[in-house]
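Incident log, support desk, overnight shift.

02:14 A customer reports that sequence design results differ from what the structure should imply. Their input is reproduced verbatim below. On-call engineer (initials T.W.) acknowledged and began investigating.
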């Protein structure tokens, strides 16, 4: 019985520890940018069926420019390299991000991204889809 209790306690301890892809050392610094099971508006994330495929895009938006209303049918995460981004939903929800910040994008929800900074906006977006998945659908 004592062994079983110890195994359960150890399992709970290790399950509570965040997953790290690389150990830190004197020459390696690891910084978690994002860990999420839901998008920034609270909706649960889910992966599509089929052969997994990751797509990454560098998106650049001029000052005052915007993406136009669109949605992503697959989970995606973005990281702001430079500038300021404002993401709006049709329900009036707004999320603002600056360089160095990350977000889990909304899935199957119309949204518009706008560069609200004075300089160019550069963001990298990673899409977790399946081979042949549509990444973006315009309104």
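02:41 Re-run completed on a clean worker. Output:
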């Amino acid at each position: 019985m004592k062994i079983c209790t110890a195994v359960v306690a150890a399992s709970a301890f290790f399950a509570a520890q965040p997953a790290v892809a690389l150990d830190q050392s004197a020459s390696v610094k690891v910084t978690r940018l994002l860990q999420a099971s839901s998008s920034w508006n609270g909706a649960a994330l889910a992966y599509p069926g089929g052969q997994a495929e990751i797509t990454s895009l560098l998106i650049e938006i001029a000052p005052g420019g915007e993406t136009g209303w669109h949605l992503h049918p697959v989970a995606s995460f973005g990281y702001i390299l430079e500038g300021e981004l404002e993401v709006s939903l049709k329900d009036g929800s707004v999320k603002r991000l600056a360089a160095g910040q990350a977000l889990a994008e909304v899935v199957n929800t119309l949204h518009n991204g706008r560069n609200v900074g004075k300089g160019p906006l550069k963001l990298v977006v990673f899409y977790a889809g399946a081979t042949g998945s549509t990444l973006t659908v315009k309104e």
